[in-house]
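Much of the work behind modern protein science is quiet bookkeeping, done one molecule at a time. Below is the pair of lines this work produces for a single protein:

***
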Amino acid sequence: MPLHLIDQYSPGSCRINRDILQNHGLRLLEILHCADQVFSIVLIDDQAMADFNHHYRHKKGPTNVLSFPAREGEEQFPGLESELGDILISVDTAIQEAGQANTSAHRRITELIIHGLLHLLGYDHERSEEEARVMREREKELLQQLLTKHLSSGRRTMPHLAINVDHVATVRQARGITEPDPVLAAGICELAGAEGIVVHLREDRRHMQDRDVRILRQTIKTKLNLEMAAVKEIINIALDIKPDMITLVPEKRKELTTEGGLDVIGNEKKLKKTIGKMRKASIPVSIFIDPDAAQIEAAADIGATFVELHTGRYCDATSQKERDMEFRLIEQSAELAFESGLRVNAGHGLDYLTTARVAALPTIEELSIGHAIISRAVLVGLDQAVREMIAIVKGA
């Protein structure tokens, strides 16, 4: 393995995902045409970094990153031709700097990996102002290349696929009859490999009906995720049937589908009360939010277990530049949520072209997809449509 990631950091208020850093480090070696080289990243705390600073640099206190090249000057070490050296990163300092820059800790640590790796390759900003300028420009260039290069998944486990069967009920309600049955559709989805079923019981009952949800609760073999507004009637139904989890979503009478994320900040008191009721019933709560740092922080503060990041703007983007920008926002938000102790799902508008990139993000546990699969099922059948999407999600 060309990269050794050594984690000596004791998690505090921020969780670190090793897959993200491992993937970034390996991709940097590729970009730098050093794929045959080896280096180590060591994650430590401020106290350990201060000790290294004192011992090797005769300076007090911690710094954000230190690099130790395997070969200094003209010294040669037998058997280490491919060894670049070690990069030590203080996670405590990186977290502090990330907060000041309004970015995720993972992004800041990645920047420090780039900085340290350039030191291992011979760059040194302390030799002259010109070298410092060159190194800064190279760091910016490498970060941009890293972020724009197509993701190849470096995660160990792929996200679950949960299928929303609301659209089956929409077709049924259009005729006011009993078919197609979303309960039967859910069973076919599970047999095809889906790992969860999502339904939205709206106040106006435009698609899913109470009967559907109650039967699904009794028949689903995987996991039932009930999407709902934080209103008394639906809360009581959820407490009665006890789904495996609920997702709180905004709800407007005239919208065709959910148009955006829930405003957690503006509804903090009501949402916190709802979460408290669900917690007493041992029902985990997810909150459907836009990829926004303030909303993520608010969701963590009120006690949510999950957030589901709204992927609609990413899916609806009309240019590659816009789509890349929206994707990076999702990526950053997923990292921030993970670091805050939240579990992370994503969904809305994902289809057979847009899903793979989001599925490759190591911090996302589950994708909720409905319309694209049900639309595809009209042409190839529901079983085939589900299996095709699973292949994309799992990277097959």
